[in-house]
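Hey, can you fold this one?
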Amino acid sequence: MKAVRLNLEDRQAWQKLQHVLTSLASDYMDLVAAEQTEFKFEQQVLSIAFTLIASEADRDRLNEFTQSIDRYFNRLQLIGVRRIEWEFYVIGEAAPFLTQGRDIRLIAAPAPLPQNALVRNDAKRMPVRNVQASSLVKGKSKIGNIVRRFRGWLTDPKTLEAARTVSRITIRDPRGALDAVRINAIAKFNDTIQWVDTFPWETWTKEKAQQIKRRHQRNLVRSVIEDLLIVGVMVIAALWLIEALSGPSFNLALLPKQHHDSNMTNAQYRCGNPAVNLKNYVCLSRGMRYNQVVNILGSEGKPLGIDRKFGDRAVVISWSSPDLSMNATFVNDQLVSRAYRQVSASK
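Sure. Predicted structure:
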């Protein structure tokens, strides 16, 4: 994890440190009073004083809290600090209940800017009318940097040489190139599986849960509204995805006992298991080839004759089941008409 550098001489950095540590203490509300935490930074020593709620504090809980503080400071690089100390006081007592601390590597503060660097240069100032467009300019510059990097990668001699080498190998030995791609894909897949297996999911989940808990403690109403918006967007996206993946719905109970259709629409209804039934009848659409219809209905049909209505090349094929009799007309191996009759209707 990349370390964060803070210069405590800077007011914003000092306030950020106080805010983070106070939020961390709020996770242990049963142990310390987070609002009574005091901070002091003198002579390159950072001192933090926590107030315990009870004199008989849970030692295990206190050790867990101090370890959390220690882990937090391990991710920081404090400029101008040579030692960190944290103390725990019981309400009403002047002597600390527990004192801990450690020395850290001193990072020197950056040199101050020369005096002439602070002089305002009116010639380089941005006009007031262009201040509102600064964000747009920044966005365009970022996109331009991405485009330039991609163009530089494409025109890089190493990239061109690698492309030539791959093309020569592919032309000379296509099977070897495919094997290399397969081996590389398997290796990448194994690396991904290994990363998933070794990733500290439990620690990551606990950190995320603590972040959500701190966010709720800071502003409960706002966090609940944000959570509801996120859940609402996810539900809408899931419903849209389900609707996009599933075919149009159709109530088979509304179909009559007999039906003939030569004006079929292009609606793609979801087919069922291969069988001669109403669901697969509705699934048939104009332009399907005979092999497609056979795969949907699950068996070869029986030729009945020529349908003169569609010309001399129109062949009528019949399928039947114990409950349904179905005909389909093909012209040049393309479905142009369909019809069915429920066997129970004639009984």
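The longest strand covers residues 334-342. Let me know if you want another pass with a different chain boundary.
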